[in-house]
Amino acid sequence: MNKSWFWFLFNFYGWLIVIMSIVTAVIVQTWWVVLLGIIGYQFVIFFELTLGRNLGKTGRMRLARAEQENRELRAEQARLLGGIEERDRKITEYQNQVAQYATPSTE
Predict the structure, then answer these.
(1) Residue 48 in contact with residue 54, Cβ under 8 Å?
(2) CB atoms within 10 A of CB 67
(3) What is the chain's percent helix, strand, coil content, to nearest 5?
């Protein structure tokens, strides 16, 4: 894997937030606003990592495969739960029929 050591510096939105904070600091003449821009940059990096945008080509492929496998497992789980519910319904119907014939009728 040929990943750059400084991959986090190539984030356009992060740099946009830092530049906007510098412009804001120049306008209001309060330089601590730049710290808000740096914190915003870190939030952008964090959110893009959680959304999988900075994974690279192979990372995105692995994420897509994992998501597909997750969908398949959920479909299999739903199918199995449906089978269990159907089995329980049939058992209940059978027990009701047995109970109906086992109780003496008062006719």
Answers:
(1) yes
(2) 11
(3) 80, 0, 20
The CA distance from 103 to 26, in Å, is: 90
Of 54, 21, 23, 52, nearest to 38 by C-alpha is 21
**pTM value surpassing 0.70:** no
Tens-digit pLDDT profile for residues 89-104:
999 999 998 888 877 6
Cα(74)–Cα(95) distance, integer angstroms: 31
Pull the structure tokens for residue 38.
């740096």
Q: Are 21 and 33 in contact (CB under 8 A)?
A: yes
- pLDDT tens column, 24-48: 999 999 899 999 999 989 888 888 7
Nearest to 32 by CA among 42, 47, 22, 19: 22
Q: Which of 70, 69, 13 is nearest to 42 (CA)?
A: 13
